[in-house]
Design a protein that fits this description.
With about 300 residues, this protein is an alpha/beta fold. The chain has a single domain, classed as Ribokinase (UDP-N-acetylmuramoyl-L-alanine:D-glutamate ligase), CATH 3.40.1190.20. Helices cover about 30% and strands about 25% of the residues. It is built from nine helices and 14 strands. Strands 1, 4, 5, 6, 9, 10, 11, 12, 13 and 14 form a ten-stranded mixed β-sheet that branches. The protein has a four-stranded mixed β-sheet with strand order 3-2-7-8. Helix 1 crosses helix 8 (about 255-265). The protein is globular and about 50 Å long.
Length: about 300
């Protein structure tokens, strides 16, 4: 049995649909409002669970508030097949919250309040070290404390676990972390935040990828929206085109991509095949509104 582990955030997403994204000082009337289950870690865990085959186990290490939305999220995840053993409830903070504005063309801007995610400290992680030791792949992001992410990566590498870092949200982070990463998956903004290179096309993505390799990761995948993704390894560098669809909502696209990528790698697919698989899953997600409810199931990939 392949064991996939995600460590990361879980948020209640408050989503407003607008004609266009607001500029500074501008007030816009929303065309609709909804409450969604979100958070980068949770989205990626849901994607991994929905896209996995039956013989794959998916665990998720996260902190939730002891509130109604946290309990509802955990119940929904278990229905998708995520194991409950990494989920911890805290009385100190509410479940994390995100405020999301989505424009008619699918673009979005997001603000996040960490809430319970901030309580996932290195001390709290100690209760879940066995999950890391038994995993085949560990996928992390940056919506939980960076020091905890670093400790998780250290423990994973000590036990031979393949590590994947989705360096989102974009921020400047210590270079020590990158030496513990096998696969890194930034988008254009995140790649620029790390390397200082403005990524706008394939050529600039190649330059950023080479710098990222110098930091440590052997495999670099820079997602470029409609252009696809630049895949760079020791022996290979090419732009892998995405699947062209009409985008409705891009909120969970990157998370779907990352969860799908881990699934495909866990099934023994080549990294090129894994990126293509992830493109297909992400393409379906952007044709639907919402975060976790937009993430497809494995059988749906046959339709694209």
């Amino acid at each position: 049995m392949t064991r996939l582990l995600i460590l990361g955030s879980a948020n209640a997403d408050h989503v407003m649909n607008l004609e266009h994204l607001p500029s500074a000082g501008q007030t816009l009337m929303s065309r609709g409002y909804r409450l969604e289950h979100g958070g980068k870690g949770a989205n990626q865990a849901v994607a991994a669970a929905r896209l996995s085959k039956d013989e794959t186990r998916v665990d998720f290490i996260c902190h939730l508030g002891r509130d109604a939305i946290g309990q509802a999220m955990a119940q929904a995840w278990q229905q998708d097949g995520i194991m409950p053993y990494g989920i911890t409830y805290t009385d100190d903070q509410p479940t994390g919250t995100a405020m999301i504005f989505v424009a008619d063309k699918g673009e979005n801007i997001i603000g996040v309040s960490a809430g319970a995610n901030a309580t996932l400290t290195p001390e709290a992680l100690e209760a879940h070290l066995e999950l890391i030791e038994k995993a085949d792949y560990l996928l992390v992001q940056l919506e939980t404390p960076a020091v905890t992410v670093l400790d998780a990566l250290k423990h994973a590498k000590k036990h031979g676990v393949t590590t994947i870092l989705n360096p989102a949200p974009a921020m400047v982070i210590g270079k020590d972390l990158f030496r513990l990463v096998d696969v890194i998956t930034p988008n254009e903004t995140e790649a620029e935040a790390i390397t200082g290179i403005e990524v706008t096309d394939e050529q600039s993505a190649r330059m950023a990828a080479q710098m990222l390799h110098q930091f440590g990761p052997q495999t670099v995948i820079i997602t470029l929206g409609k252009q696809g993704a630049l895949l760079s390894t020791k022996d290979y560098c090419a732009l892998i085109p995405g699947v062209q669809v009409k985008a409705v909502d891009t909120v969970a696209a990157g998370d779907t991509f990352n969860g799908a990528l881990m699934v495909a790698l866990g099934e023994g697919k080549s990294v090129e095949e894994a990126v293509a698989f992830a493109h297909r899953a992400a393409a379906i997600s952007v044709t639907r509104a919402g975060a976790q409810r937009a993430i497809p199931y494995r059988h749906e990939l046959a339709d694209i």
